[in-house]
Amino acid sequence: MSRIRVLDEHIANQIAAGEVIERPASVMKELVENSVDAGATRIDITVKEGGLELIRVQDNGSGIAAEDCETAFQRHATSKISSGRDLFHIRSLGFRGEALPSIAAVAKVRCVTSAGGDGLGRLLVMEGGRVREYADIAADQGTDMTVTDLFYNTPARLKYMKTVQTELGHISDYIYRMALAHPGIAFSLRHNDNLMLQTNGDGDMRQTAAAIYGVSIAKALVPVEGESPDYRVTGYTAKPEVTRANRYGMTTIINGRYVRHFGLNQAVMRAYHTLLPINRFPVFMLRIEMDPSLVDVNVHPAKLEVRFSKETELLAWIEQEVRRALGAMSHIPKAVKRE
Ligand code: ADP
Ligand code: MG
């Protein structure tokens, strides 16, 4: 008798969830990325008890068509790529078709979505990876996802969760970076009914930075703007007088995706040269655009890591652009102060 078998879909999803869904912030990340990919201009996020009790993401994006509702929760089901070639030209944040089935495998999900402007939508409730309820419902265009009882069926993972404050810290950190990456989207974040962030979505990154870091940091930001044959950078970096004791103010965004890249952060820090006090970190938010073929986002399921095909060149260029921005600042202090 054969001893090797293909695992059933639910087990496969639980295994994938182990990689994709590490903590409440990972659920948040996947849901918000889907809202961004759906072209939302407003994303409202509600969290209870650090996301351990409830995570809700409401958007006014494209919505999911009635015929796609259940498929969206299947493994490897995506509307974002269709061929192997597409993998080298990714412009969306998602593409793996793993998030929704992974979340549904380790939590309870209630999805209300409407793709038309006709006020008609669908309600889909998933539990333990299975459809519990499916019904027509009145709904505005967009998607409203509520995730509760995270890790209810994976006690080992649940035990590993940290305090509400720690989990909330991971969530807010991620939402702040997403808001900086997409200043054209109005974000709101509520925790246990306290409003933690509200951005107006008017496209102004400095306004968004003010909402996140406060006005004094926003005032210390100098614009970084540059273009090379391969890259374009826009954003801000703070004057060296305004530094932080941690790295939470360092944000690099590649083609709309917040990424953690040690080399990029180091390159920006090198641009500050001796201006940066020891053990202090700068505040910056840089959006770098490049042809998707120059960056590999398919490195890890969480997609926070990327690889650049011309890394050395990119890092040298970023260092130069940031240095130029900081240098320009010191020559025209009055112009900067007025902003
Ligand atoms: P991926 O984002 O990699 O495609 P997901 O599992 O996150 O995979 O989502 C599956 C599909 O469900 C998406 O490709 C998209 O078509 C649809 N979807 C999920 N969330 C939303 C949303 N908020 N608005 C519109 N469509 C969505
Ligand atoms: Mg997704």
From TrEMBL:
Segments forming domain DNA mismatch repair protein S5: 209-327
Role played: This protein is involved in the repair of mismatches in DNA. It is required for dam-dependent methyl-directed DNA mismatch repair. May act as a 'molecular matchmaker', a protein that promotes the formation of a stable complex between two or more DNA-binding proteins in an ATP-dependent manner without itself being part of a final effector complex.
UniProt similarity note: Belongs to the DNA mismatch repair MutL/HexB family.
Annotated protein name in UniProt: DNA mismatch repair protein MutL
Protein's organism: Xylanibacillus composti
Gene name as annotated: hexB
